[in-house]
Structure formats: C-alpha cells, structure tokens
Write a structure and sequence with these properties.
- The protein is α+β, with helices and mostly antiparallel strands.
- Helix content is 41%, strand content 12%.
- The protein has one domain.
- It contains 10 helices and 7 strands.
- It has a 3-stranded antiparallel β-sheet. The chain has a two-stranded parallel sheet with strand order 1-7. A two-stranded antiparallel ribbon has the order 5-6.
- A hairpin with a 6-residue loop joins strand 3 and strand 4.
- Helix 3 crosses helix 9.
Length: 258
C-alpha cells in the first residue's frame, strides 16, 4: 500500500511539472511583450495618425490578434475578396457547429496548453493580471483592460466576468452564414478559438454588437475603427470568407481615411 501511495504522489508531481512547463511556454512563446507597438491595446492607447486619441494612456496589455495590414494593404485585400450574401438556409447552433465555448482542444497557437481560450485571451489583452491559486496561472481573476471598443480603462474581476467579454471580430453566426457551414467541424472549432479572431472588450458593447458585420456595427471609439476594419479584412482573407456588399462598402468607407 505504501508503494502505491508513493507512486501516486510521484505521478501527481510529474503532472504538475508538465502543466507548469506548458503554461510557461505559453506565456513566454506565444504572448507579445507589453511594449509591443503592434499590439491592439497600444494602437488604442496611441490613436491613429490624424485622429483624436480615443483611448487611455495607461500601460496597455500585450494583446494582438492577426497583424493588421496597413490601410493601403487592407484596401487592396478588400478589393480582392469575393462579394457574397448571408446564407440563412442552414440552421445554426453555437455548440453543435463551433464546439463547446473556449475549448482548449483546438489547433490554434494557444491550443492544448491546459488553459481555456477565454483565459488565454484575457491574459494576452489585460495587464496587471492575477491568477487563481492552484490553476498553474490559467484562471485569470483580476486585471485591467484598455478596452479598444470604448477607449476606456476597465477593471476585470472574475466575480463580474460578464463585464469584459471575448468578441469574435467577425462573429460566429455571420461567419457561418458567409460559408463556415461548408467547413469541417475542426476548422470551425479552430476559428471559434483563433486568437487572430478574438479581442477582450467591453461586455456591454460586445452584446450590443451581437452578430453584426461592419455595415451594422462599428466600435464607438473612432480611434480604433481603422484597426477594427483592418482586422476584419485580415480575418476574411485568412479564412477565405466573402464579404457582403453592405459590409464591403462600410469597410471601404472607414479604410478610405486609414
């Protein structure tokens, strides 16, 4: 019996070490430094050239989805995207079509690291982050967000988690209607958890946005609209999603001044 207990203790210790190594690799290898000038939060804080800054000047988090193309590149890429329409003929189910929310079982760069995607994005986009003890720095319990959508500073507290949510820049339901219904299940799960598609934002504004594309909703913070539209184009390009005519015109209108 003593030998069995000792063996169990050794196995638990090995598991803990492996989890910590995985977590450290995630933090060191996959997350940009807080001073990265390419980060979304840095863009929010600095504003765009020629625009009144609409975001706080506090130290930003280290968040960055896809490297947003410049306005000129985004305009060119947008012009090359096919124009389509929202196909509403296929029934949609969030879990059935895109998998359990924030599953770690995905092939994205934070996948299979032992932490769920929501916490991965919170860690990336917040600064002054603290974690729940005993979770190998997985469960984020506090932090501060330079919210790109509102341009304001927000405090994240796990007990009020809904105040800061994770947004799919190109919403899941819209992606489904634009053609994701033709993808494999794994591709859809990967899309739903792709850091390139996700941003930590104001929960109120995320709910206001819903599944709207750019022709129906843009961030109220004008200093972030160029980055938002550039990110939107980059996601369409990455996943070969068409744009609707209304979305294309809305994106063009913003990108004209970027």
């Amino acid at each position: 019996m003593g030998a069995i207990v000792a063996l169990a203790a050794i196995l638990l210790a090995l598991f803990a070490v492996a989890a910590l190594k995985n977590r450290h690799a995630r933090s060191a290898g996959s997350v940009r430094s807080a001073g990265d000038t390419g980060s979304v939060a840095s863009t929010v804080a600095a504003g765009r050239a020629g625009q009144a800054p609409g975001a706080p000047t506090a130290a930003p988090g280290s968040g960055m989805p896809v490297a947003a193309p410049s306005g000129q590149v985004a305009r060119s890429e947008l012009a090359s995207l096919p124009v389509g329409s929202l196909d509403r003929s296929h029934a949609y189910n969030r879990v059935g079509d895109f998998g359990v929310a924030w599953t770690d079982d995905n092939n994205d760069r934070f996948g299979h690291n032992g932490c769920d995607t929501r916490d991965d994005i919170l860690e990336r986009d917040l600064h002054d982050v603290t974690y729940r003890p005993g979770t190998h720095d997985c469960v984020v319990v506090t932090g501060t967000l330079a919210d790109p959508y509102s341009g304001s500073l927000m405090t994240f507290v796990k007990a009020r988690a809904a105040e800061i949510q994770i947004d799919h820049v190109v919403p899941l339901h819209a992606a489904w209607q634009l053609g994701a219904w033709t993808w494999s299940q794994q591709t859809r799960v990967d899309y739903a958890n792709d850091p390139d598609v996700l941003l930590a934002v104001s929960g109120k504004l995320n709910e206001e946005k819903g599944d709207a594309l750019a022709d129906r909703w843009l961030p109220p913070n004008p200093a972030f609209r160029c980055t938002y539209t550039e990110l939107t184009v980059a996601i369409h390009v990455k996943y070969r999603l068409p744009v609707t005519l209304g979305e294309k015109r809305a994106l063009e209108a913003v990108l004209a001044s970027c």
